[in-house]
Structures
1.
Amino acid sequence: MAEIRWTFEAELWLKDIYDYIALDNPRAAEQVVDGIYDTAQILKDHPEIGHKYQTPEKEEVRILQYGHYRITYAVLQDRVDILGVFHGALDIDKYL
């Protein structure tokens, strides 16, 4: 079982997602952020489940979908680092 570690940047993305949705509906914002978090927990037992993202770096980046959001992560030896959470409308290449 892999440990899941949320990077500071990923936590900021979650906060921004919550804040944006909460402007209209705080309950919906909580549900979305909880859903993203719960979906990421799958990576504890199945870290390779997401599809590979092509990156020029040596680090292998994968993406796991949750609704309109893409959870980006790197699989390390005994842990999974969540790198960010991006809305599907964003150009992910600008951030990775």
Note: Helices lie at 8-22, 26-40.
2.
Amino acid sequence: MEHVDKLRNALPDSARDIKLNLQSVLQPGTLSAEQTWGTAVATAMATRHPDLVEAVLADARAHAGDASIQDAQAAAALMGMNNVYYRFRHVVGKGAYSQKPARLRMGWMGKPAGNKADFELYCLAVSAINGCEACVKSHEEAIIGSGLSDEHVHDAVRIAAVMQAAAVALG
């Protein structure tokens, strides 16, 4: 975690809790290394903080394969689109919009480069950052349905929360 550690050390003293959390959420636990670093890449991208994205990507290459990293990047991009669209439909709450087809290309979602459950985990974490209730519920259901546990969901969302906080603290 050389690059992330360097970024962690650049956080101000007022973000001491975030420094500690950033270190702890990227340690081995319920999530595999692929899941941890794929989630970290996807959520760092969702924060749109270039230094955070660069550091996480650099360290992720030592812990996750190309397929996981590609899936994480695709999840961040697709959820950047889907979370806006589906959050709009949910917030407006008019049946007329819910009846209309999205007509937005989402082919990667059906055939990710790596593990489908892991891709869903990345999508969930990005959707949590973007605040799309419909997408969070949909991806959580898919994750649990694929055989992963609520601990996997919980840990992925913890990574999302800390990545968002790190981006805010970095300014």
Note: The two ends are 21 Å apart (CA to CA).
3.
Amino acid sequence: MVMGSADLPDRLDHYFSEMSSLQGGFHQQVRDSYGRMVEESYGTLLVQRSGKFRWQTVTPFVQQIVGDGTRIWIYDPDLDQVTVRRQKNSLTNTPASLLTRRGSLSEQFIIYPVGNKGGYEWADLIPKKQNGGYERLLVAMDDDGLKVIDVEDSLGQRTRIELQDLLFNPSIPEHNFMFTPPDGVDVVGDLP
């Protein structure tokens, strides 16, 4: 049973305020402005607030994105390449800040309930600072927690991330948020 929309802003704010870590799987779909599928991927995610994450795609291609709190490392084994960039401010006002930034959701967004669809309660999140790379950000939850993050960019492209088997506040060993480039790969980007 899903709670009513009226209390959704408070439940979302409480959920994100209490969250210190997440672990689970994801199914991501990217659609163009006409609704055509552009990309579909599956993988796993680990999040440790504040600022640490591991996003690992397993199909249709393998890729790892690791945020260690200082840098973001993107490893593409098919290209034998690692791209690295400074993490500071690179997630600000992006959908990733939902999961990685410590604090309440209401500090970053105005939360508008938009109703029940597909068994989930949906909310439209309007950033208080308008510098994000998206036009619209929607989240869905049920009584068990966060289920979907849906992002529409300024070109009408929509990315939907369905979260699966999500564990709320698990203990995640620190080594999961460290990355050392494998021997022999090209490393490009913002190195120390």
Note: The domain at 5-183 is CATH 2.50.20.10 (outer membrane lipoprotein receptor (LolB), chain A).
